[in-house]
Amino acid sequence: MRGPEAVVRRVLEQPDEAVEALEEWMTEAEVDGWLRLCEAAAFIGADGLVATWRPRLSSAESAVLDLVLKRLNNEALVSEDLEAVLATCTAQETRDLALEGRVRMERGLHRFEQGDLEGARDDLTWAETRLSSVGKASRDHDLSLLNKAAFHLAVGEPIMALQTYGELSRTAGHADESIAISRLAAGRIHADLDQPFDALRLLWLAHAHAILSGQLLLAIEAGTTFVDLAEAHLDSDATPMAEQVEAAGPRSA
Hints:
- The protein is an all-alpha fold.
- About 75% of the residues lie in helices and about 0% in strands.
- It has 14 helices and no strands.
- The longest helix is centred in the middle third of the chain and has 19 residues, at about 115-135.
- The protein is globular, with a radius of gyration of 20 Å.
- The termini are far apart.
């Protein structure tokens, strides 16, 4: 059992045991804080658990949870909402460096939606730098890298997107789901650049890491994309793709 959603479901199934065992379950599931648990409960619709656990949150965490709840209730976020939460996360008495990075990421996405591309670029870059320094390979750091890469793609910078996706190293502790998403997107970029063999290697990795993360739909998407592209390059004498993936390394200039 891993992840906050698994803990929430276990609490719903075993409410009596949860009174004594909840924190032990959180440790087993590698849940790093009550905000994650509250978010997961909100996503599942367990509003009673959100209300029960909310008093354990700091002021900054509670402000971020308000943003999450607004989004879940399909309420439009406005700049004033984000600025208010950012003010809480940066105030001397309530400052939270990691949440400041997360909210800057959210503001970057909001600015992109509003057409402020330079403002979005600044916020997404700032957020990734901060989250890398205070929580490298954390969930929020992974999201900041994926969002930053998606921004580069959206503004016509595919090479910058590839570089950003590459920062989600397979050996640095990033989540398998994040690695799968990054390799799927990077594989498609390489295919668009007419580099089929790099694309196939990345799509293979996307499929493998999607399976490891239990994301079956993502695994199917990566696998079918791999098969579609590989069909034109079949060779019975080729080195198996599993071996090619492990032997891959940076190319010389």
